[in-house]
Amino acid sequence: MASFLIYFALLLIIPLWAQSRVKKAYKKYSKVPNSSGMTGAQVARKILDENGLYSVNVEEVRGHLSDHYDPRSKTVRLSSGNYHGHSVAGAAIAAHEVGHAIQDEESYAPLRFRHTLVPVANLGSNFSYFIILAGILMSSANFILLGIIFMSAAVLFQMVTLPVEFNASNRAMEQIVSTGVIRNDEERETKKVLNAAALTYVAAAVVALLELVRFVLIFIGMNED
Fold first, then answer.
1. Residue range 27-84, pLDDT digits in tens
2. Which residues make Cβ contacts (< 8 Å) with residue 138, sequence separation at least 6?
3. Which of 33, 59, 132, 221 could link 147 by a cystine bridge, Cβ 3.0 to 4.6 Å?
4. Which UniProt keywords apply (predicted)?
């Protein structure tokens, strides 16, 4: 019983800890102006143009930390605070999202692979628990195995996301330094923002993997009975 409580506590604590790190880093460095005085929108546009991505648009999007790159419309979308703000955090996040646009332009293999996983990963996320629960209630190892297969696709998506996100952050650091958006003495603060954001993806991958292992052990246990 104690092991189950510890397990579920970890599932709760890990993502909450990662989210708190992101919020703390963003709150701190969103108040620190970057040396170039550029808004997030200007940073994104500058890096895009420096890389010849003139056709990629930069748009404002509602929400807090809702920043993302949309590969379908070739658009970098920045939340209002980062779009209009002149902070170190805003510059870092804008550069990170442009990193994804550069990956897309270069047909970065992990990004392409992640795109192909989206349909099956969505199925895995939406239906795997229901299938596994049905298998447990009916004592059906076959149902549990089917659910595990679906869940594995979702876990694989989380794992592939890690190199995609870390690579985008590395590109972001290179670009904002080489284009003069930040000075060398601002690199440390910028890395803190990017590293904190990366923790959310690590946490999601760890939680997904823990869940998969738990159901695999249940499946093995049923076959041993």
1. 999 999 998 999 999 999 999 999 999 999 999 999 888 999 999 999 999 999 999 9
2. none
3. 132
4. Hydrolase, Membrane, Protease, Transmembrane, Transmembrane helix
